[in-house]
Amino acid sequence: MSYPAASKKQLEAADEPTLLPSLAKLLDNVRQELDSNQETAKALLTRATSLLRVEIDRQAVSDEPERSGGGLAAWQARRLVVFIDARLDRPIRLKDLSEVSKLSTAYFCRAFKRTFSETPHSYIVRRRLNKAETLMLTSDLSLSDIAIRCGFTDQAHLCKLFRQQYARSPAAWRRERTETGCRRAKLVIRVNYAAEPC
Q: Is 121 within a domain?
């Protein structure tokens, strides 16, 4: 089985199908709600802001692998990133990854670790958690639905791995990022209201 090589632009756009349309939709909803329901508009703006912060944090920790002796070639690394990101919602077998890179399974595992500084399993889990973050900020899906869409066996599996990575539950993480902006906006309104002369 052969897979087409990915260009650098395709690689850079790997996250955009979930990020940019979601962000655009959130901002469209803000514009629609701004006049009629300011509280909803503020909550949507908070989600959009949180989504941008998460993406900025992701960009800071670049996924671009460094080429080292015995690692994957650049074309192999790009092809693997695109292949994995496109299949996060389903099981990804080591055999499939080695076929994509055109290496034996044993050599592939060593080369992947040298290139990405983590095992294929760790990399896939991290990418699934990134996708779960995006879905938590851009949708009202339940955590169980998000878990399934990100390739976790169930909500408990997502919660366990999320807690290991972020030291808090997904529900708490989501709540912090969707309610913080609302609380700040209410505080600003109260302060401005209190400062007005009677």
A: yes
